[in-house]
Amino acid sequence: MEAVKSVNLVKTYHGKETVEALKGVSLSIKKGELFTLLGPNGAGKTTLLRIISTQLLPTNGEAYVLGFNVVDRAESVREHIAVVPQDVATYGNFTPWEYCYYFSLLRGMTKQKAKETSEKALKAVELWELKNRTCATLSGGEKKRAIIAAALASDAEVLMLDEPTSGLDAVARRKVWIVLREMIEEGKTILLTTHIMEEAEMVSDRLAIIHKGELIAQGTIEEIKSLTKEKFRVVVEGKSLKTLDKFISNHSSVSFGSKRIIYIDNGDEAIDLVKKALKNGLKAEASPITLEDVFVKLIGGEMNENRKNG
């Protein structure tokens, strides 16, 4: 049985304009995996998560959590999930400890169990030393970690996190990544939304790319990367890029000021380009194609701005 499943999920908003936020999205998330919904802002990620977490009714289609229909069995779903919304704000007079402990009690835990899970969660996000400080005195990143800790302390089987690391600095973000992977090792299932490519690439077991309400790709990182024939990227920088014009014209590429990323099909050709660039006094380095490169191409971005026939 899947932990989370959606079948042809549709959500249409009717107002001054009709907006199709989701257009028949079907996905399947296995128990014990971290599944990421990756997409630009406004793609439909939050709408999908809100439907699966019983906060929003679908227009058409079905969704299930641990076999429970999110519409017909909403209460049963809520017993098994914990949610961190995207723009959640903390109560200023609450402490991190109170967030974890009292919310765990509200879920029906015994006092002893709530104390144990709260301590574990606060230590995991490195807030144990600040557990008794009011949230009004914490930094933005610390407040966000307090909310994440409350979800972790719930001991829910399925965690749904809507861009949980947005607004966090690089150090805090990586600490959250470590915690999420530890939760997976403990058998939890996590549905994560993000628009941060590095985050998706570092923490996901599998992911789905959603764009304008449609699911355009789904699979492991390697399966997603295999959707483009280009396998390498060469970043070249310098003032005399024209010396490479003949080579560049035959490949997909994109410019950023004095830098150009050229996408190559095979490793030998990438190395040859680096050698040629260095010989002409340019800076150059080659590496495998990134998830961001593939993402941009799949959603119709500018990966091939200089390719005439590609």
Descriptive tags:
14 strands; Alpha-Beta Plaits; 11 helices; alpha/beta; four-stranded antiparallel sheet; 310 residues; disordered C terminus; six-stranded mixed sheet; Rossmann fold
Lay out the secondary structure:
Layout: E1 4-13, E2 19-29, E3 34-38, H1 45-52, E4 60-65, E5 68-69, H2 74-79, E6 81-84, H3 96-106, H4 111-124, H5 140-153, E7 158-162, H6 170-185, E8 189-194, H7 197-203, E9 206-211, E10 214-219, H8 221-225, E11 232-237, H9 245-248, E12 253-256, E13 259-264, H10 267-279, E14 283-288, H11 291-298
Parallel strand pairs: 3-8, 3-9, 6-7, 7-8
Antiparallel strand pairs: 1-2, 1-4, 4-5, 9-10, 11-13, 11-14, 12-13
CATH C-level category of the largest domain: Alpha Beta
Within the CATH hierarchy, at the fold level, what is the topology of the largest domain? Rossmann fold
Helix content range: 25-40%
Low-confidence sequence ranges: 305-310
Question: What proportion strand?
Answer: 25-35%
Widest sheet: strand order? 6-7-8-3-9-10
Query: Which shape, going by the Cα principal axes?
Result: globular
Helix/strand/pairing category? alpha/beta
Number of beta strands: 14
CA-based gyration radius: 23 Å
Mean pLDDT: 89
Distance between the termini: 42 Å
H/E series: EEEHEEHEHHHEHEHEEHEHEEHEH
Domain count, please report it. 2
At the fourth level of CATH, the homologous superfamily of the largest domain is: P-loop containing nucleotide triphosphate hydrolases
* CATH architecture classification name of the largest domain: 3-Layer(aba) Sandwich
The helix count comes to 11
Describe the biggest sheet? 6 strands, mixed
